[in-house]
């Protein structure tokens, strides 16, 4: 998505450490590409949600994969270049 990122993962480290690493490393690379220094790339806030069961995991994965379609950036999830649906060759969500 042009203005936000969805990440669905099964953490093996504390979530704050993962978020700090993810935002820090991607901000450095993005700012290098954009030729920016001294300004924040990411907002301070983030939204996290604990997935409680496989049904919820499927629902969230489907939402993430359909997000570019809902935003009218792609005709279907497989058309979005950074989608797990495209990378997996089909939906990473078994219910799609």
Question: What is the radius of gyration computed over CA atoms, rounded to a whole number of angstroms?
Answer: 15 Å
Tally of strands: 0
The major beta sheet can be summarized as: none
Low-pLDDT residue spans? none
Oligomer description: single chain
Report the helical percentage: 40-55%
Q: How far apart are the first and last residues' alpha carbons, in Å?
A: 20 Å
Q: What structural class do you assign from the helix and strand content? A: mainly alpha
| Residue-averaged pLDDT | 84
User: Could you spell the SSE succession in H and E letters?
Assistant: HHH
Beta-strand percent range = under 5%
Count of individual helical segments? 3
Overall morphology: globular
SSE blueprint:
Blueprint: H1 15-34, H2 54-70, H3 84-87
Structure description:
- The protein has 96 residues and is mainly α.
- It has a domain at 15-38 and 52-87.
- Helix content is 43%, strand content 0%.
- The mean pLDDT is 84.
In short:
With 96 residues, the protein is mainly alpha-helical. It contains 3 helices and no strands.
Task: Describe the structure using short key phrases.
single chain, 96 residues, mainly alpha, 3 helices, 0% strand
């Amino acid at each position: 998505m042009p203005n936000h990122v969805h990440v669905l993962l099964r953490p093996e480290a504390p979530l704050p450490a993962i978020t700090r690493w993810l935002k820090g490393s991607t901000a450095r690379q993005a700012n290098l590409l954009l030729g920016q220094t001294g300004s924040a790339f990411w907002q301070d806030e983030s939204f996290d949600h604990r997935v409680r069961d496989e049904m919820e995991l499927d629902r969230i994965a489907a939402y993430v994969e359909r997000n570019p379609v809902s935003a009218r950036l792609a005709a279907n999830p497989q058309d979005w270049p950074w989608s797990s649906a495209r990378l997996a060759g089909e939906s990473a969500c078994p219910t799609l």
